[in-house]
Amino acid sequence: MTELLKIEHLVKYYGSRSSLTKALNDISLTVEKGEFTAIMGASGSGKTTLLNCISTIDRPTGGQIYIDGVCTSDLKRNALSDFRRDRLGFIFQEFNLLDTLTAFDNIALALQIQRCAPKEIAGRVKEMAGKLGISDVLGKYPYQMSGGQKQRVAAARAIITRPALILADEPTGALDSRSSRMLLESMELLNREEEATILMVTHDAVSASYASRVVFLKDGKLFNELRSGAEDRRVFFERIMDVVSLMGGDLNDAVPSLS
Amino acid sequence: MLFRLSLKNLKKSIRDYSIYFFTLILGVCIFYLFNSIEAQTAMIELSKMKAASIDMLNTAVSSMSVMISFILGFLIVYASRFLIRKRKKEFGVYLTLGMRKGEISKILLAETAVIGVISLGAGLLAGILLSQFMSLFVASMFEADMSRFVFVVSPEAVLKTILYFAIIYAVVIIMNTFIIARAKLIDLFHADRMQERMRLKNPVLCAVLFLAACVMLGTAYYNVTANSENLTSEFDIILQIMLGIMGTFLIFWSVSGFALAILKKVPGIYHRRLNSFVLSEAGAQINTAVVAGSVICLLLFVTICALSSAFTLKEYREDRMDYLAPVSLCLDREMTDGKTAENVLEEKSFDMAALEIRAEFCTYETGSVTHGALLGSYMDKLMEAGFDESYAGYPMEIIHVSDYNRAAAVYGFDPVSLGENEYAISSDYSNTVGFFDEGLKVNDTIEVRGRTLAAAYGECVKGYIRMRYSESNMGLVIVPDDVEFSEEEQYASLLIADYAEGYDTDAFRSYMDDGEFEALVSGTEEDPVMYISTRSDIIDDSIGSSAMVIFIALYLGFVFIISGAAILALKEMSDAIDSRHKYEVLRRLGAGEKEQNRALLIQMGLFFGFPLILAVIHSVFGIQVCSQMTMGAFAKSDLRITLGMTAGMIIVVYGGYFIVSYLCCRRVIHEKEK
Q1: Interatomic CA distance for residues B651 and B657, integer angstroms
Q2: Is there a domain that residue B3 lies in?
């Protein structure tokens, strides 16, 4: 196993000296290639800040982040764009599909930005769509698709460039439970078959239980970490819930409703 | 308190307002510039004829200003509604905080008042400064000398500008109050989510309509140019205009759907770099601005045609002076009292040394030579077409061939040669030329003083014996010298002369043209009128009227281009604010800043460029029609200079708006979304 992501003493402060918010307070974390990692935490625990720092959208106050051996804080502006283009894939909570483009064009856009040869594009998009079960919506516009379909299109767009690291920010946040399950299963499949390295931020224990490893964040610090062994997903979910209750009431909404 | 809030709001959104603000200042400035032309001529030396042209120009500008104020008013109301829509959420917050709608209206009122006062102030200041340069331009257009330089401010124009714009701003305030009063809180909150709905159009329907539109435009283009002889009734012409408008509208409706459907089939273009994004965004923009786009396209079209024909007309008129005004003076007097023009001059003791007489002769009228007699059976056709019966009975003016040839030699026309029993018709007024040519086909003999004469030529001879402001010889029968007329049949006495050496001065020309000479030669009311036409007067008329046309075309053109460009720029600004998140997505997908700028530039270029391109295509045909209308079918003139000037003006104003809004939008998309 190789280290794909290595975070060393990451610190991110917001605000002025008089009112300082320590969003991330000395975090060190390593993710191996091919791992499906979930980061859990209540709102305000710093999980989105962590993701933004990793994704090079935000600059950390201190500490280092290495992705695939590259130290991201050393990169200049244009190199940063190229780095995002070539190494990272994004899935957002609000899908963020471009509403004037069809599903096909949305997925193809990621390849176009990589300056992929136009004649290769159709084949690659169709192949990826087949894997994610969205072949029949390729010709549709975002407003013609369901939330789950949109999110899988977004996932396809994130993955098609074969990025070293896929970053997902609450990908199931705007989905109903059935769509969530389908998306998470797709992500699991990509992780298994394509050996995609996925880092997912979530506050939902069910979503987290699809990952192979869950990292808990509280008040900007690492709180705990779980790895799913060979056990069933249900068992892993129980273990996650134990940690959640241990963390206190902060993560109440992680508990799925009793239905 | 409320006032401070509105000031803060203004400062905060000054960037969104910058294009609006700039347009207002420009509008005020242009309004003042053109309405103060009269004052600007105060320091210019003008002949009576030129002064009359400026008076007419002033009246025309005044009445145009009413229309212009409607256009500007529409633009300002549209733009301010646009800006309010951007701020609905802000108003929603005020309402939930317990502010009353009336108070929000007051905030808007204060804002409009501040904007109004500042834009009026700045616009008037700019207008007054620019009008100093404008007077140089006016002087050069009227080919007059500036006697001295005075800093001129026209209080009437200032008051008029303030009044007109105050009314426009009042309408804006009323509209704003109305919008706020009608708005529901829930809608205000969701305003930013209610994006202009993406309406998907069926590509097949788009293709069909696009082709239909092309056929419509093609038909209209063909009918107004190659087939223009078959356009006889007004209805036919209106039909072509309607076809053009419909075609333009349909093109805007269908172009993006059609073009995108085709481009998508070409992955080499569509799936290269950010092209799919750029094309779809531009397509969606054109789709949400079909009406605005068509109107702007037509405004640009009218502007291009008006400007280029105005400049062409000026050149054409200048070229025509050699034909219309080849000698210094032509006097013409009816001979009811038997006196010739020269008799009158001597009687009034005019200094005959001033004139070098080049030709002097009489014309005649006789009962047997009437329009009806000349036109023969063609007259019946004219009467069927609605000509009055009395036209047939009007006598034709008759001239001896040697007299005509003398005049022709002076004026520079081809001489006429007649056999013993032949006659010819001379005319240069295009309608009557047509009639007489038709008449000659059906009837080529006339009876004069008992002699039967046959036509020597199959058509009219082009020429005249009286100098006039335009071609106006409506028919003259040329007969052999040995046809004798009685004294009663004498019709008019003509005297054609050049000014003698030493008399061809500004002072003498002014004496001849500006009223003194006329006062000298005119007798009592019973005496026949002495018609005076001078070369200098005809040239002044030509200069004055072409300058007038140019000023009006410039006035309309500026306002049209500014209105169109401002609407496009405002739409681009608001679209850029709405699509910030799209560029955020591109950023995360790894598109660099340069790549994003390129995408924005191409997309805006398409949106700005498309109406202009279609307008230019329209103009290729429209200009031909305009030059036919203003100069007759056979006029050829060099269009290069005039087109260059028109293009220059459009590029500066329209292109200026494009660049400013590109820079503003570029800043917007690189901001982080709040």
Answers
A1: 9
A2: yes
Residue A31, amino acid: V
Q: For chain A, which residues make up each domain, given as ranges?
A: 3-253
Q: Which residues of B touch A86 (CB under 8 A)?
A: 590
Is residue B191 pLDDT above 90, yes or no? no
CA distance A154 to chain B (A): 11
Contact between B591 and A85 using a beta-carbon 8 Å cutoff: yes
Cα A60 to the chain's mean position, in Å?
19
Residue B378 sits at the chain A interface (C-beta within 8 Å): no
B87 close to A (CB below 8 A): no
Evaluate whether A234 touches A202 at the Cβ level (below 8 Å): no
Question: What is the spatial distance between Cα B377 and Cα B390, in angstroms, rounded to a whole number?
Answer: 15
Shortest Cα distance, chain B CAs vs residue A243, angstroms? 33
Closest Cα to residue B428, out of B377, B376, B466? B466
- In this structure, the answer to whether residues B91 and B147 fall within a common structural domain is yes
Residue B590 and residue A105: Cβ atoms within 8 Å?
no
ipTM above 0.90, yes or no: no
Residue A91 near residue A191, CB atoms below 8 Å: no
Q: In whole angstroms, how far apart are CA B256 and each of A143, B21, B260, B264?
A: 19, 31, 6, 12
Residue type at position B284: A
Tokens of residue A38, six digits = 């979930």
- Residue type (1 letter), B651: I
Based on the domain organization, do B21 and B103 belong to the same domain?
Answer: yes
What are the residues whose beta carbons fall under 8 Å from the beta carbon of B179, sequence distance 6 or more? B81, B84
Is residue B465 in a domain?
Answer: yes
- Residue B365: other Cβ atoms inside 10 A: 18
Domain that holds residue B611: 210-324+556-674
Residue B559, phi then psi, degrees to nearest 5? -65, -40
φ, ψ at A82 (rounded to 5°): -65, -35
Shortest Cα distance from A45 to chain B (angstroms)? 21
Four-way CATH pick for A3-253: 3.90.1300.10, 3.40.50.300, 2.60.15.10, 1.10.357.10: 3.40.50.300
Q: Are residues B387 and B448 in the same domain?
A: yes
Position B66 in a domain: yes
Whether residue B236 is predicted with pLDDT greater than 60 in this model: the reply is yes
E strand residue ranges, A137-190: 165-169
Chain A contacts in chain B segment 548-587 (CB below 8 A): 581-582, 584-587
Number of Cβ pairs closer than 8 Å across A and B? 90
Measured in residues, chain A has a length of 259
What pTM did the predictor assign? 0.77
Q: What is the pLDDT of residues B35-59, one digit of tens each?
A: 888 887 777 777 778 888 888 888 8
d(CA B179, CA B181): 6
**Whether residue B386 is found in the same domain as residue B478:** yes
* Residues B65, B138 share a domain: yes
pLDDT digits (tens, 9 = 90+) for A110-139: 888 888 788 888 888 888 888 777 888 888
Q: Which of A54-68, B18-32, B262-276, B635-649 has the lowest mean pLDDT?
A: B635-649
The DSSP code sequence of B193-229 is T-PPP-----HHHHHHHHHHHHHHHHHHHHHHTTTGG
**Residue B634: which pLDDT band, with cuts at 50, 70 and 90?**
very low
How big is the CA angle at A77 (ends A74 and A82), to the nearest 5 degrees?
Answer: 90
A100 interaction partners in chain B (CB closer than 8 Å): 198, 277, 280-281, 283-284
Q: Domains in chain B: how many in total?
A: 3
Q: What residue type is assigned to position B470 of the chain?
A: S
The answer to whether B590 contacts A81, with C-beta atoms less than 8 Å apart, is yes
Q: Which long-range contacts (CB under 8 A, 24 or more apart) does B221-228 make?
A: B221/B621, B224/B621, B224/B622, B224/B624, B224/B625, B225/B621, B225/B624, B225/B625, B228/B625, B228/B628
Helix pair B290-324, B593-631: axis angle to 10 deg: 40
